[in-house]
Amino acid sequence: MLKNKPSTGSGNKIRMLLLSTLLFLLNLLPLAYFPLFRLGFEFTKYAVFLFFGIVFLFSGAIYLFKNQKIEVPDRKILLPLAFLFLSYTFSSIFSIAPLTSFLGFYGYFTGGLVYLFFLILVFLVAVQFQKEKKIILQSIFLSAIAVSVIGIYQYLNHFIKTGDYIFRIYSTVGQPNRLAFYLISVLPIAFYLFWEEKHKWTRLLYWDGFFFILLAFLLTFSRSSLLLLFIILILFCLANPLKLIINLRRVRPAQIVASILFGLLLLIFSGVMFRSFPSTVQSFTSSSLNLRLAEWEGVWNASINREPVRQLFGSGPETTYFTFFKYRPVVYNRSPEESAVGPGQARNYYLQLFAGVGLVGLIIYLIFLKNILNTAYQEGVQNKLNQAIFWSLIIISLHGLFYYQTAEVMLMFWVMAGLVIFGEPLKIGRGLRKLSMLFLFSTPILLYLIYHLVIADYYASTGRIEDLNKSVVLNPYFDIYRRDVSRYHLSEMLNNKDKDKELADQYYFLSKKAAEEALKISPEDIRNVRQLLLLNYYAGVNLDKKYQEENLPVAEKLSQITSTDPNDIDLIGLVYLDLGHPDAALKYFQMEKDLVPDTRGVYLHMGEVLKQQGKIGEAIDSYKHALKLSPNWDLAEKELENAQNLLKK
């Protein structure tokens, strides 16, 4: 992180430690996957990144005592960076969910304040290693090869077992689209290493690696990333028409063959992709694209339909999930018995920033991004390695329009951004030394906290109640662990409702305690409201109606959060139905019917309401409609028979 003095041996050792740590992080993070965590992919990468971040913090703090100067970016980079961190800090402090904004949304993690702090630290470390730039990029390249080989193995293993040639690989990244965007970001670096290498056998090795990365990228069958690749190729040709003509005269035979193979692979896999998906274009425009546009619309509406201060500074980093449901588009109700929940993160990084840190934070980030890209472009004019970095940064920047930034892609962006910045020497004063002392003494505490995070998630992955309780003790800040505890006790309550009512009551109270604690930790999280509502509903139906009566304020809270999710509306209607309030229940069932008219369950429930109101004939019609949608449905047949018997009487 710091500029070494040649005369200081210990300083050089720390510098080498920093470089080794950076290389190890770049190699390990994309490959990090540990199935014994509750989230094998995302949480593993989160824990790995935080651990290495603490190592950087510790090493840098020591190095401050060994040197008189450090390299820092110039003001046009440093000022936007500082203001970006301040914007995140301000938005996190006044967030609607401060814990989530600080630590990250469970399942994604990459947008929280803590994560940004360590990304900036990685950026400042990368600034110090201009001379080692190629080694760092080779490390990124090697890691991408390893990820690609694992993905290709997944494909071959699936094909041999099933004969199905359409299988979307995900490798160690965990999801095909995420993998595609990670690999496409590495392609310019991979292509540069192959194209510029002069040694015959080394060039062959680079070509093999490039081929593996490209092949794995295509096997993700990611349409949006393939579209992005074509956009980048067009932009590259438009930006370098004269260079391309001149360089074609000097091209080597191996490069010609490689270029032909590259083009053939793109054409073949593009054809396979669009043949393999029936009516792909129609499907893409009518389904996938519509759903994504609706998601963006929902996040946009949640971002602008709030008080002015929230528009400026956001609802807090990583809080998209909490604000989305009030504006959840009806297109999310995709099929009669299925509805999409909603985004933990918007599949548009810039929209995600606007929602989280507001217009101020978004503008600051765009200024920072513009200055980084401008610097990379200027450096790329004189240095082809920087030109490759520039195109990787362009891909990552455009990738943000299609998806949120994953852990692998964010790490690449901040490292590459640091590699194109030539730092200016900054004298280490007393203030910096005091800050380094603070960092130095905080590292044991941070390591202890990381240990608790890791062990807690490991315990939570087992599903055993004794381990779930341990996870709550070790990490009391993640409400999801308490929600898991509540679900466990709810399951035990239902298992014992007919065997031992007293024991079932005990499980109810344990489940309720955990659900209320989860709601207290994160009152904006709709999942916590649902859990408490569901618990009280089942307890009211199976144990005692008084539990159902406690559900009315919870049902009211849920109805204020969402008005377009048929599952939530149906549950609220069932609460009122079980309490003997048919008019209120009918109101919600009618809302559900308007949202998803072909859902069998709503006609069953409306039939029960009509039966309670004494409208037996209309109830019979409703049951028949349910059976029309789902023939041979035993429950609907039974209710229809009961209604017909009532009509005869």
List the helices and strands and how they pair.
Blueprint: H1 9-28, H2 42-64, E1 69-72, H3 75-93, H4 98-103, H5 113-127, H6 133-162, H7 176-196, H8 200-219, H9 223-239, H10 241-248, H11 253-276, H12 280-304, H13 308-313, H14 320-324, H15 349-382, H16 384-402, H17 407-419, E2 424-427, H18 430-462, H19 465-474, H20 479-496, H21 501-521, H22 526-542, H23 545-549, H24 551-561, H25 566-578, H26 582-595, H27 600-612, H28 616-629, H29 634-648
Antiparallel strand pairs: 1-2
Structure description:
InterPro entries: O-antigen_ligase-rel_domated, TPR-like_helical_dom_sf, TPR_rpt, WaaL-like. Keywords: Membrane, TPR repeat, Transmembrane, Transmembrane helix. It is found in: Membrane. It is built from 29 helices and 2 strands. It has a two-stranded antiparallel ribbon with strand order 1-2. The model is unreliable at 1-8 and 274-286 (pLDDT under 50). It is globular and about 95 Å long. The chain has 649 residues and is an all-alpha fold. It folds into 3 domains: 1-67 and 429-463, no CATH class; 68-428, no CATH class; 464-648, Serine Threonine Protein Phosphatase 5, Tetratricopeptide repeat (Alpha Horseshoe), CATH 1.25.40.
